[in-house]
Write a structure and sequence with these properties.
The protein is of the alpha/beta class and 261 residues long. The chain contains 12 helices and 6 strands.
Length: 261
């Protein structure tokens, strides 16, 4: 069964999408079978992989829409997942995903729709990564219920600590009410410069509150990480020798060592 990693933060611009696509590539380059699942109606992970979401006939939205109507989607899943474009597979998103919250309404079990979808395909992968929107709504709750590991990307600023506190509160609620198997893999410092007093101070506060083992390999500031998506490339495709690629490569190694395979 796949390890399902969800990247989430209530604060926008926290590096969730950048981290999702580059962790997926880092794991794939270590020989792992990886699926990147874009579960954000902005479809930025899809776009960052060079896929134009408005050209897609099928996406994760259509799959869940079919499930809401009582359809089996085993055949549709295989034609929706995009293979061969990257070292990892991609289950894309598009803007229509924003309609799911209304379509699901007060349906019993609405929080487990994504989990049920992944049950159809998880045996084919070692790792599944879910990229979520910053808002707390239908898609975010579904992503947290479907996962067993949570990564919280954040900048090392004091304002970002509020988003971290909110995410921890959400984690505790999801654990208690919906998904007792979800655990915090760690907090991922992004866009950081540990030479600054501010970054070191925030990192120390995280360390004191969560422990050393909950701080994942920091991803340093690197303009190439911002440039790569405009070419539809991961950092390993765009600039494999830059520090961003080095940092995400180390993070991939850490995830594999923690999961034991």
């Amino acid at each position: 069964m796949a390890v399902t990693l969800v990247l989430a933060n209530r604060k926008g611009g926290s590096g969730k999408t950048t981290s999702s696509i580059n962790i997926a590539d880092a794991l794939a380059r270590k020989g792992k079978k990886v699926l990147l699942l874009d579960f954000d109606s902005q479809a930025q992970a899809t776009t960052s992989c060079g896929i134009l979401s408005h050209n897609l006939e099928m996406s994760v939205y259509e799959l869940i829409h079919l499930m809401l109507n009582g359809r089996k989607v085993t055949n549709e899943i295989s034609t929706t997942i995009i293979k061969g474009k990257k070292p990892f597979d991609i289950l894309p998103s598009k803007a229509d995903l924003s309609a799911l919250e209304v379509e699901a309404g007060l349906l019993d079990g609405r929080e487990t729709l994504l989990k049920n979808l992944l049950l159809e395909i998880e045996a084919a992968y070692d790792y599944i990564l879910i990229d979520l929107p910053p808002s707390l709504g239908f898609t975010t709750i579904n992503g947290l219920v479907a996962a067993n590991r949570l990564i919280i990307p954040m900048e090392l600023t004091f304002l970002a600590m509020d988003g971290l506190a909110q995410m921890m509160g959400i984690l505790y609620r999801v654990n208690a009410e919906l998904n007792p198997d979800l655990s915090l893999m760690g907090i991922l410092p992004v866009k950081c410069d540990l030479r600054t007093n501010l970054a070191r101070s925030v990192a120390e506060e995280i360390r004191q509150n969560f422990g050393e083992e909950r701080i994942l390999c920091p991803v340093r500031n690197d303009i190439k990480l911002a440039e790569a998506p405009s070419f539809g490339e991961t950092i390993f495709e765009y600039a494999i020798n830059c520090r961003g690629a080095s940092d995400y490569g180390q993070l991939g190694d850490l995830i594999i060592s923690r999961e034991g395979f």
